[in-house]
Design goal:
- By secondary structure, the protein is mostly beta strands.
- The protein has two domains: about 10-45 and about 140-195, Immunoglobulins (Immunoglobulin-like, Sandwich); about 60-140, Sandwich (Immunoglobulin-like), CATH 2.60.40.
- The protein has strands at about 10-15, 20-25, 40-45, 60, 65-70, 70-75, 80-85, 90-95, 100-105, 110-115, 120-125, 135-140, 145, 150-155, 160-170, 180-185, 190-195.
- The strands form five sheets. A five-stranded mixed beta sheet has the order 6-12-11-8-9, with no helix packed on it. A four-stranded mixed beta sheet has the order 1-17-2-14, with no helix packed on it. A four-stranded antiparallel beta sheet has the order 13-3-15-16, with no helix packed on it.
- Strand 11 (about 120-125) and strand 12 (about 135-140) form a beta hairpin.
- The radius of gyration is 18 Å and the shape is globular.
- It comes from Sphingomonas spermidinifaciens.
- Keywords: Signal.
Amino acid sequence: MIRITALGLSLLVAAPAHAGDVGIRVVDASGAPLADAVVTIHPAAGVFSGPIRFPWKLAMVQRNISFEPSTLIVPAGATVPFPNEDKVRHHVYSFSKPARFEIKLFGRDETRSYTFKSPGAVALGCNIHDRMAGFIKVVDTPFAMKTDADGMSIIRSVTGGRARLTVWHPRMRARDNEVTFDIDVPASGDLTRRIQVALR
């Protein structure tokens, strides 16, 4: 069950600095910060129709028998490379509804790619190494960010007005591992909220 209290969803900061910047701090039921939660915002006014670009590299690397990063945010329609930097071969797959695919065995210094067309959460595995697990969150909004080690994410220059805020994490105890709230983004000034969630 998701635990959202008046304190957990209270307004913490509202300073007249960068217009439309939204800060979201995500914590677990004990109040500990939750890293690698994906925060997205969909303004009621809509988003621009051009291509979505993020400042991070859109690649899922296999290194040290793991996926790096463990969670990657990409826009719908992005073609994501899967470079193998390990000495062993990998066989990447997903059975997730937004993207069911297999990238069959490929070795060190080889790269394979896949195009993610539909928004949603894609869980990754390796048929050779059972302990490998990673996630690609495919989004249809430019307003998206992961939380850092302090559970904090800051999304810049969000369109002012009513908006839908979604927080996703693979261990969240909720339908589709996500919770959604309505927020009001100020026309000027910053908005910061603290959101408390329950984990599996």
